[in-house]
Amino acid sequence: MPVNRNALIRFRTIDACLKNRQRRWTLEDLIDACSETLYEYEGIDKGVSRRTVQMDIQLMRSDKLGYNAPIVVLEKKFYTYEDPEYSITNIPLTDQDLGKLTEVVEILRQFKGFSHFQELSGMVQRLENKIDAAKTNQEPVIDFEKNENLKGLEHIDALYQTILKKRPVELCYQSFKARSANTFVFHPYCLKEYRNRWFVLGVKKRNTPILNLALDRIVSIGECPAKYAPATDFNISSFFHDVVGVSVNQDGKTEKVLLHADHETAPYIATKPIHHSQNVEERLTTGVVFSLQVQLNFELEREILGFGNRIKILAPEKLKRRIRDILGEALDQYQFEFNRGSLQNQINKLIYKGSSVLHHVFRKRDVNAISAKLHMYLKSRPAEDAYAVRNLLQELPELKPLLFNTNLTAILKEINPDLFLTKAIYFDKTPESNWYVTWHQDIVIHVKEKIETEGFTAWTKKNGEHDVCPPEQILKDTVTVRIHLDDADESNGALKIVPGSHQKKLSDDAIALITQNSIPHVCEAKACSIHLMKPLVLHASSKATSPKHRRVIHLEFNAQELPNGLEWAERLAISAPQA
C-alpha cells in the first residue's frame, strides 16, 4: 500500500521510541513524540490524533508494510518491542523487493565509468552487499551485455569531462595498423558506444574531417593549452544516420542493399531491424527480401556474415562479391587445413626417400596474393624473361612474409631449427616456355664471390653470379622446398623422382643405370601444397602436354656456413611471421 511522507516520519519516530528501553512509553508519550517530530521536520503544529497513532501501531504490527513489528503492551499501559533487538530498519527485504533492487543495481552498474556516478557507485556497492546478505537463493532476473575486460574504459570520464567543459586534449593514440603511437591535439565532441566498445568523435583542428577513435587504442590523455574548436554543423544522430555501426565515410553515398532471408531467419530480421531504413521488398516462397539504404562498411559486412548461410546478398554486386570472397576464404581455412599431426611422418619420408609432399601449407588467399605480386613484377620484364626469376627474394623482398607463413616456418623449424635460406627461384612452365629436364641431381650452390677453396669445384659465372659444386656433405644437408602455385600433374610436367637416390652424389653413368632400371614416382601436388626434396634425389620433368601453367617457387635451405670466407649469395634468416 502507498505510504506518505508524514506516515513514514511517524513510523520512524515510534520505532525510535520503542527501541529506547531506558524509558517506558505510554500511548500519550508516543503521540507527543510524533507531534514534536512532525513539527521539527515538516512544520506541522496541529499535532497528531490518538486514533492516528493507534492506526500506525496497528500497521506496524501487520505485514501490509512488511514490518511485522513485535509490539506488545505491558501492564495494559506501556508499549515496547518484545524482541529488544528489533527495529523496522532491520527488517528483511521481500522477494519482490530483492528482485527489483537487483535489476536496478544491474542498470546502475552500466554507468560506473563516469565520475558523476562515483558516489552512486559506492551506494550501488553497498546496496549489492545488502542484497547479497538479504537474499538466499534468488538469481537475477535481468542480465545486461557487458565486457569487464574491455580496454579503454578508464578514459571515458576524462573525455566526458573535457567534452562538457569544451576543452581539447593531447591524445597519444596507436591504431592496430600503426607501428608506434602518435601524439596530437584532439578536440572531442561526443562519446559513442557500439557493441560494448566505446569511441570518441572529434577533430584534430577546425574545419577538418571528423575522426572516430576507439578508446581501447588510446595510450594516454593529457591536458592541452590550445583553444577549443567547437563543433559547428556536427550532429551525432545525423552523423551515424546512414550506417550500421560506427564506420562512417563522410563523403560516401548510401546504396540500396537487397538481402534474401529464409523463412526461419526473416522474423528475426523483421523484429530486430539491421538498420532503421529496413523495409520488406518482397515475400517469396523461399523467404523474404529486405532492403536497406546504407553505406557499405565493415559493421554491415559483419552483421550479414553473422547470419551465415541463412541470408544471401542480392545487390549491390560489389557487396555480394565481397561477402562471397570472405565466405570462400573462411571455408578455405577449414577445408584446406594443414595437418601438423602427420608432419613428423612426412619429414621421415624426406629423410629416407628424399621427397615428400605436404598439402594445404598455404591458403588460397596466400597463393593469390603471391601470384598477384609476381604478376605485377613480371609485367615490367621482357617477355622472354617472364618465365623465371633468379634471386627471387632480392628482386621481390615483399614476398618474404607471404612465403614464410606460420605453417612453412613450423615445418622448417621441425626439420632443423638452424636452417636459413640459400637460394630462391621462380619458374613457370607454360605452352610458350615448355622444356624437358633430363634426370639429374642439384649439385650447384650460389655464392657471393669466387674464392678458391678445397672441395669446391666446377666454378662458373653467369650474369655476374658465381655458382660452384660444394663438398657432398653440404648438399646432403640442403633441404629444397618447392611451393606450388598451380596444380602439378603429368599433363603439365610435374616433377618425377627416383625415391631413395639421394644418399650420395652420382656419376653420369650411375645416373643412367639407376634411371633405366627404376620406376619413377610422379610427385603430383595441388596448388597451396609444398614438395620437400633433398637436392641429391634424382629428378626430371617432361614437357607439358596441356596448356596449364605450372608455377613453382623453388627455395633451398641449409644450416652450414661456408668455409674460407665463402658466403651464400642469397643468405636470408627465417623469421616467424608477424601476428
UniProtKB/TrEMBL annotation:
GO molecular function term, any single one: 2-oxoglutarate-dependent dioxygenase activity
Cited Pfam families: PhyH, WCX, WYL
Domain WYL: 154-220
Signal peptide start and end residues: none
Residue ranges of domain WCX in the record: 255-331
InterPro entries on file: CBASS_pafABC_assoc_protein, Phytyl_CoA_dOase-like, WCX_dom, WYL_dom
Coiled coil regions in record: none
UniProt xrefs under Gene3D superfamilies: q2cbj1_9rhob like domain
SUPFAM superfamilies: Clavaminate synthase-like (SSF51197)
Name of the featured protein: WYL domain-containing protein
